[in-house]
Amino acid sequence: MEPAQKRVSATGAEGTATRPEQSETALELLVHGVGGTTPEKMLDDPRTVRITGDDTAAVFRRAEDADAETQPPDHGGRPVPEAYVWCNLTSGNGTRALWLLLLPFMVVNLAHWMRPTARGRRRTVRLYGLLVRLAGLSLTVLLVAAVCEVALDLTAWQCAGTRACAERHSWLGFLSPAVSDDGWWSGPGRRLALAALVPAVLTALLWYLSHRTWSAYESQQPMSRTPEPDEETGRTALNRPGFWYGRRLVARLRAAHTAAGLLTVAAAVGTAAARFDHRPGGPALLDVLGRLFEAALAATAAGVVWVVCRRGRSEHRLDRELDAHLVRRLPLGALALLLLAAVYAGWERPGWESEGRLPGDTTFGAIALVQGALVIALGVVAHVLHRAHPDPRAAMRGLGGPAVATLACALGGVMSGGVSQRVADWLDGTGVTIAGPPVLLTWQASVIPGVLVVLLALCGWLARRTWLLQRAELATMEQDYPGESADATRTRRIARTRAMATLTDRGPLLVAVTAATTLLLGAGALVGALTTDKAPAEAAQGTHTFVQGAADTAQALGSWLIGLGFILFVTWGRRAYKDAGARRTIGILWDVGTFWPRAAHPFAPPCYAERAVPDLTWRVATWTGATGGRLVISGHSQGSVLAAAAAWQLKPSVRKRVALLTYGSPLERLYGRWFPAHFGPAALSALHHDVDCWRNLHRPTDPIGGPVRLPGDCGPEVDRAALKDPLAYGRTGAHPLPAPILGHSDYQADPAFAEERQRLLARLRPDVPAQRPQDSSGRSSA
């Protein structure tokens, strides 16, 4: 599969390009969906060549079609297939398994793009984005605080300061005053300063990963063009020139979040020493230094929040500028403050001993309180936007973003509590030599069984609804396959597949119930921790036997579940690191979750669309400009979303020369419902009018794809009637063996696919007069 750019004149490389009026070539640009595939499978040919691109994403052709533009008669009018392969953007080498650790950041970034449709409410839209960015900042602080809890509190403060625990873990001996006979590192402040290396290194690693993935995935610049007049109508932001190039915002947020992580570490180290210095009768100099440190910490933290609040995305133009001074100085300032905190804490303080816990309850309680307030405010803003322009198909009546932000915060809390619980159990063994993690984390773990009970009840209800729907589908089999002899097993299998496919449409209900339950029980856990300052089992002592037993069970079961979840999480990541199949499964998760640019959190996994959409846009624009041929973009599943995004990025004159063929497409079923501001009815209707023609194929057995559901007369123009699946109920001459139930795959196996493709190519035929806007001459077909 060696590159063949020089042999294909239409790419704009060496050679003589065919004049548009002489071209008879048609191109079918295939874009695969989630999970990825190989160019050999997409093109149904073992011999393929790379036309353009690199090892990360590239366009391939059959070897015999490499010079198709120079020899159009050899193809007999059939379209030349090209395959755009982008699966390495999400499921390449084993290091992508580490992206699992960034899952909460990815989820909160999704919440940014889930806002309801808004027209003329710029301030409200900006407020929505601001609240999501602040929620993302709180997740960074939460993650670093959890690592500080493990490294500084549990390990350096509690275990190293306790003889029994330090003797059990000999590698902590040099930090323990009881074991090392008051060695240089045995002072509490010096132990904390040394342990601070762990969260500081983690913060630096997150900064490095964000910077590296930006350079590797998202630094591709889109085609430069002037904004279109209709981009102010609010139909969608995906046609703006700067939508797929967020370099400036990502750099600003990366600097702010890196500084926030370092400031969290500095606070954990410095405030512990300052609290000791503020006691009555303490050294006056250290007391003054402690107050100056706290003032500097508060001022720098306010600066970080100001940077996050100050500016959102710039989409109306291709913003190539970079706030270089801010990007460099903000993290360096926070690093300098961390070094000062380490020096300040390491000062010799006679009589200072590590007892109890560091003030983790206050820290985690404040984070939980801020996150709850942000989620509630986000819900209010989303409700206001939805009421201004209600969309009946929008998930959760416009509250999908706040619900997903709630789940992101809950996921961050579970990960933080899980690692703290496991490390505490490992350090303490079976004894009670250390105080353990903060009480709030124990309360949060104790409410997990309650969330699971609600989810199990909801799953039971969904199972019953699916069973009832399956029974209803049994009655339609005779209408869909008339004249076939009944086969009870075959009928049940088809009906069950159709019923299971509808579970996707129940996703908003599942998310709504989970988010509401999590928010309510999380608020109860916060109140319980702040009012009792005891673990649930301890707080229930002296109450009714049933209450005490329930509290003991919830605490034990919650601790076990959160530990099990953390172990499964690590195990899955390790397996994905070694196993390509498991890594591909994680890649599917990223295919759905990382389509959107990093607008709320810079440490989220990289956005593959900021590479894939410019790739497709450049390919379509340069090929049509060089050949004047006919072009159809043929997108399956997530590939249809990329195809639509690429079409929006084309110039209007080029967009009118492109046809779309989508199949198994989640454009309306998932993206239209969850991201109404960008894929709502107005946006999809505009896309239908902007491109030359668009046809969409779907099946009732497909759990992902569905109809586009355009309003009015546009709907039948785009959506073909649902395809039969399976193609034949029983054995026939064309299908002597039982036809499989295809579901979301192999749409090309249906004769309707070739029929619709041929119709699109016929509409784009070059002999139509060029002055007709709906059918200009010189088109390419994919």
Automatic annotation (TrEMBL):
Transmembrane segments: 127-147, 192-209, 255-276, 288-309, 330-347, 367-386, 398-420, 440-463, 509-530, 554-573
Protein name: Membrane protein
Lineage top rank: taxon: Bacteria
Alphabetized SUPFAM superfamilies for the sequence: alpha/beta-Hydrolases
Composition-biased stretches (Polar residues): 773-782
Keywords, ordered alphabetically: Membrane, Transmembrane, Transmembrane helix
Keyword presence, Cell division: no
InterPro entries: AB_hydrolase_fold
Region annotation Disordered: where it falls in the sequence: 1-24, 762-782
